[in-house]
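Project outcomes to date are best conveyed with an example. Our students and postdoctoral researchers have been running inverse folding experiments weekly, and each run begins with a structure described purely in tokens. The record below, which covers 203 residues, was selected by the lab manager from last quarter's runs and is presented without edits.
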């Protein structure tokens, strides 16, 4: 008989540490982190060069994604897109170019420092079809069926309550909508000690 054992983690501490880590990426992007960051990393992930070139350095220097969600398919013009965990805004600004002026992109993030960079980059780029809001994936401040596409890059792995975040993503997707998620996965169970280790969650 299989027995499932719940491992308690202090979610408030986890969120505080995640905010601290990503505020640091925002404020000092040249610092060495345990994961790759910046424009050169995005180039390695095969973003379209012309779209990447249009993204201001304000956003690109603090890019901390794990892969390229657009490798799963191009966005269509006029689509409504949610970027979950938008960080400094690079994926949102790439998406804004794909959907055009008739489309709309909303980036949501819980780190104020990253949101400030994203808003500054959007203004610098003149992207009037993108906005950035503060919030968390487990409680999205959007109506049912608000988006045609959800993109996310290296964020869902940081959220403790996966059931809640996926329920919210399904709720805000319109019928026939799709998700293009780039993230970190594991192939073997994590030990109880590992699941309690905040440092493993954040980096």
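After processing, the design step wrote out the following sequence:
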């Amino acid at each position: 008989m299989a027995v499932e054992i719940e491992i308690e983690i202090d979610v408030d501490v986890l969120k505080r540490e995640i905010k601290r880590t990503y505020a640091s990426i925002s404020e000092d992007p040249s610092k060495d982190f345990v994961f790759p960051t910046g424009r050169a990393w995005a180039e390695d992930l095969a973003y379209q060069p012309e779209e990447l070139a249009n993204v201001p350095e304000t956003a690109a220097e603090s890019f901390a994604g794990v892969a390229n969600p657009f490798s799963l398919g191009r966005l269509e013009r006029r689509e409504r897109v949610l970027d979950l965990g938008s960080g400094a805004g690079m994926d949102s600004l790439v998406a804004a170019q794909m959907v055009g002026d008739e489309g709309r992109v909303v980036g949501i993030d819980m780190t104020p420092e990253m949101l400030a960079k994203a808003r500054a980059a959007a203004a610098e780029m003149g992207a009037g079809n993108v906005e950035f809001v503060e919030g968390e994936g487990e409680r999205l401040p959007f109506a049912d069926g608000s988006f045609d596409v959800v993109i996310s890059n290296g964020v869902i792995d940081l959220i403790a309550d996966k059931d809640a975040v996926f329920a919210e993503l399904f709720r805000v997707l319109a019928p026939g909508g799709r998700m293009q998620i780039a993230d970190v996965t594991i192939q073997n169970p994590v030990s109880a000690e590992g699941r309690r280790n905040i440092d493993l969650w954040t980096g």
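The radius of gyration is 17 Å. The mean pLDDT is 88. The training component of this project remains on track.
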